[in-house]
Amino acid sequence: MADKIKVSLLGSTGMVGQKMVRMLSKHPYIELVKVSASPQKIGKKYKDAVKWIEPGDIPENVAELPIVSTEYEDHKDVDVVLSALPNELAEDVELKLVKQGKIVVSNASPFRMDPDVPLINPEVNWEHLELLKYQKSSKNWNGLLVKNPNCTAAILSMPIKPLERLIKINATYIVTLQAVSGAGYSGLPFMAIDGNVVPWIKGEEEKIPKEINKMLGKFEAGKLKSSSLEIHPTTTRVPVKVGHMGVINIVTDDNVDEKEVQKALDSFASLPQHKNLPTAPNKPIIVFKDEDRPQPARDLQYYDGMAVTVGRVKFEGNVLRLVVLGDNLVRGAAGITILTLEVMKELGYF
Amino acid sequence: MADKIKVSLLGSTGMVGQKMVRMLSKHPYIELVKVSASPQKIGKKYKDAVKWIEPGDIPENVAELPIVSTEYEDHKDVDVVLSALPNELAEDVELKLVKQGKIVVSNASPFRMDPDVPLINPEVNWEHLELLKYQKSSKNWNGLLVKNPNCTAAILSMPIKPLERLIKINATYIVTLQAVSGAGYSGLPFMAIDGNVVPWIKGEEEKIPKEINKMLGKFEAGKLKSSSLEIHPTTTRVPVKVGHMGVINIVTDDNVDEKEVQKALDSFASLPQHKNLPTAPNKPIIVFKDEDRPQPARDLQYYDGMAVTVGRVKFEGNVLRLVVLGDNLVRGAAGITILTLEVMKELGYF
Amino acid sequence: MADKIKVSLLGSTGMVGQKMVRMLSKHPYIELVKVSASPQKIGKKYKDAVKWIEPGDIPENVAELPIVSTEYEDHKDVDVVLSALPNELAEDVELKLVKQGKIVVSNASPFRMDPDVPLINPEVNWEHLELLKYQKSSKNWNGLLVKNPNCTAAILSMPIKPLERLIKINATYIVTLQAVSGAGYSGLPFMAIDGNVVPWIKGEEEKIPKEINKMLGKFEAGKLKSSSLEIHPTTTRVPVKVGHMGVINIVTDDNVDEKEVQKALDSFASLPQHKNLPTAPNKPIIVFKDEDRPQPARDLQYYDGMAVTVGRVKFEGNVLRLVVLGDNLVRGAAGITILTLEVMKELGYF
Amino acid sequence: MADKIKVSLLGSTGMVGQKMVRMLSKHPYIELVKVSASPQKIGKKYKDAVKWIEPGDIPENVAELPIVSTEYEDHKDVDVVLSALPNELAEDVELKLVKQGKIVVSNASPFRMDPDVPLINPEVNWEHLELLKYQKSSKNWNGLLVKNPNCTAAILSMPIKPLERLIKINATYIVTLQAVSGAGYSGLPFMAIDGNVVPWIKGEEEKIPKEINKMLGKFEAGKLKSSSLEIHPTTTRVPVKVGHMGVINIVTDDNVDEKEVQKALDSFASLPQHKNLPTAPNKPIIVFKDEDRPQPARDLQYYDGMAVTVGRVKFEGNVLRLVVLGDNLVRGAAGITILTLEVMKELGYF
């Protein structure tokens, strides 16, 4: 198909990279044509360079692709570069490609808080892509850089967005129970986390309020102004493979009832749904009324992991409490990168 | 030893019962002389009636004891009846024994919120034993009934007690990550909780605010008046065998710093410490400064599980955050029953 | 479709029952029209009677079906009754239905070793269905009874069948590492098996040699004569949700090499493959050459769980060693019941 | 105490090293006076260099010790150097120290199969220390080198030793279920082994037959002649933290009954028991008659992990089957190094 968007993928052999490879293999109009990985893998076939852990076989068209470098030369023929690079490598590599003219859509943390760079969780703030209209001139870049949020911020921001419209939020107390895959495939030894909880995730509590507030921000006089939601996060690691859960207590002066809240969440829809984009979940938020849901072992499957699930909605005194769960590798990473690209295409950003 | 306190134990073959059997086997002045269990076990030797899961062998003096019933006749020679009965059986059995004149110290939930019954977590509110002076007359009982709190309330109340003295608490947001043993040995199938989190524990969120507020209560005009701390609990079950963790966010108008808080927790001591009671931990609260502690797999061992551990103390804006961890079977159950008995002995209640 | 085979399902709300419900919902010519469960559920809608744990929603056509009893009256209109009943209930219920004229295909253990009842793992011994020709007269039954093997015997017999053709087997030493789901959803408490191995499974070591030998048996003079393979099984339970693994050491006087063995396994095919039956895996045995495979967390997905995977093939001295893995709920239970029915249809048994 | 044996410890901050530090802290006559670790830790205090995971606090006398190098200079004042070095570092470091005159007792794999080096599991083959009488001359070393076996070989050889005396063994089929700690604290990511079994452990199946046969060897004409037991091992990794289990099938022409076997195992004792050495378990083998034992979560505690436990003894046909379990870090590593030193002291080797 002549019109397919050709993309390359940085960090293609990691856990999130593999997830993107699998998701893109069935994509109607995005075609993965180049895969990049660490220097010692360059030249090998993808199937020989990867320790494949996704279900099913390696997509045939990718299995035989040779691993390429992160240099511009190796990506000059693609329309967009997707990045699932580790945070510590991303800054230099991505910046170089953007300066040389590439459009880069990236999951990695550097530049997420840069005022010129949109930080996109599509259903929450696709409008922020408008920043791209000013980015080249303000940055003196030849290409474009778009970021996706931290996996936890991505999941938490989903129910907060419609709630923020419904009620005036005074403060938010969030405790997360995060899966081990959030630290990468080899991020935590079995000996450290099996039968255990670690009540701290390095760097996570700093990112969550900043990223959520940036995503909830509004344009004022051509600039993006972050929101100023008061968020108190505590992040913990639990012995679960996939699925980040957040318990959210929202303090408000408004009076709502639980049914209104459930309805606002359940009916949430945004541009990806309205435009029926291929990777968009029909319903981005699924609400449970059973008290014992959502659960990571049971509730990550909806729309291939692109929906978040919400339960335990309760309004008492001036506090609204809910529990949210999302697939940290799909909704929190691979999926929103692809969905962001679909929105950019839809809106004509390339 | 002629002066030893002779006790019997209801529910002696369960997980908490076994824990008490082991703890009492080394006790300097409490002697376990009768063990009771469900009707079909009556007459069997303890060693044949129990599926022993505590470390080490069954204490020799208990192994050969015959299982007795819960009837008064079988307990008439003991000074005190301890109870680790399941909640659903406890009400009738305990009430009958108390009416017939026994002193019962119990872990089970019935009567915990009865205004005439002290709910004791020794370091937190040993003074409430004074209620016993009025109990016989107000209840028309021949014996006495003392209750210990729910395991989670027991652990959470430990740091809240000294903090409540230090600062004025406006509201408290608590999220717990509770171990599977809290539901009993067979309470949760492996299929239901392995690799999973269940964001709800039946009945737990109702108990926590009530029981904590009762324990924090004060005597006024001969009556115990519950405290009115605003507590918003969310309780979750995590795939951990032993150890309940709580993430506590406390809203306050006061200004304290983290070091003051750590010091108040670290130096907390109460009658059990001052009287150097056998089961009392030297330090009931151990404070960690390492960010990744406390952890259930590493931090349940202090003073044989009788200390709680606290970490992640942080004061920011008007919010004090801390994480507390305790052994739900020892600090949350078996240990405080025994410690309560020691306090009662010390104060001359029998 | 007028020609669809109408079936009812006994034990429809259990773990294997749910698996069958899901598998049948997509079946080209078998239609599930009646669902039965325990007496207290009768009359409820399936969706209200089941605690659904399969991925995805309850199939729409089943969700609204009312639960029926196990009595003949409730099954008289179906062509075949499938049974996922617990072993202890199956004998009476199934026998009654068969006597009253129903064709019953069942996973439960009673009658498995009855000489008149075929014990079918389709690829291994579909020919044994011929026993049905004699069953009515020898048993004086009006219906027919077909059994499927124990889940472990089902998985182990898959590679043994082609190997038995390739070499003369003197003795077989088998150690299994079996998943917790093999004991049923509530079969093992988390406290008992998490972080543990239990080196014994009640009743399992008795079943394995007998059932495998029956499946490997041959017709002689109109009777099925069991094989007499010497099998020494040790069965263990490991903290894995799904997937039974077996380490098989086969002693032989023959000389084969590993490649021959791998080829014989890899190319194994039987009537279900030759007739291209809907539930038949294209390849019933998948052979890995990577030393660290198969693994339950990675290798249960092939052909929706209907293939077994084999690895670690090694021939040294007079010993052939291999490791086999299969989905105990699909290949070991739900899947072979459905595949058995497909074979029966293909061969005109109803 | 002037007469204490002064030892240094290589690899003191690893998991086995920490275990030795804790075990030695209570030792009546061995004193740990120097601790060595990797170059970047040299000069730090032990307490600052170690990520302590053993229960309890770091022993006081060790906590303040400065980390030293592996050079002779840093060990010249100690009587014996103990080594818990990683296999890949051990060869050069240990050889250098031995050549320079130190007595080294080591857990690491290099030199285990050297015919001049005794490979000691004390109860099994303490007599092999006699090799030390010839080692200096045959090797031209100034010091002495003693090795301990691989953890799995150490545990398996315990019951095989008394059985080899009882019956003539034709062949042995062994399947192990090994704990994750056997691969080191960071050896396996949670993502790789949680809820999983990996049916292969690199290098393990090569070591087991060779090491067991060396330990079962006999002196002939001043040389150690390995035994020639036919052992067919398959090694698997299971999601358990500590405790290696082995299922052993022994083929024999002899006729024994299960009780004889249990008695032979139960009554096994050797020089460490006869001399009542401090680290020796009173009973090196504990036999269970309950069918569901031994279990890693319950049975590693006997004699602080120095006993192995055996269950499921069964003799049928010509096959004896048993299951053995041992603490891979204590009986398989730290404990036997210390016990070996005690035997050497007892026998006057220094």
Automatic annotation (TrEMBL), chains A, B, C, D:
GO terms for molecular function: aspartate-semialdehyde dehydrogenase activity; NAD binding; NADP binding; protein dimerization activity. Residues 6-132 form the Semialdehyde dehydrogenase NAD-binding domain. The active site is at residues 151, 244. It catalyses: 3-oxopropanoate + NADP(+) + CoA = malonyl-CoA + NADPH + H(+). Keywords: NADP, Oxidoreductase. GO terms for biological process: methionine biosynthetic process; threonine biosynthetic process. Gene3D superfamilies: Dihydrodipicolinate Reductase, domain 2, NAD(P)-binding Rossmann-like Domain. Its EC number is 1.2.1.75. Pfam families: Semialdhyde_dh, Semialdhyde_dhC. The keyword Transport does not apply. Belongs to the aspartate-semialdehyde dehydrogenase family. This is malonyl CoA reductase (malonate semialdehyde-forming). It comes from Saccharolobus solfataricus (strain ATCC 35092 / DSM 1617 / JCM 11322 / P2) (Sulfolobus solfataricus).
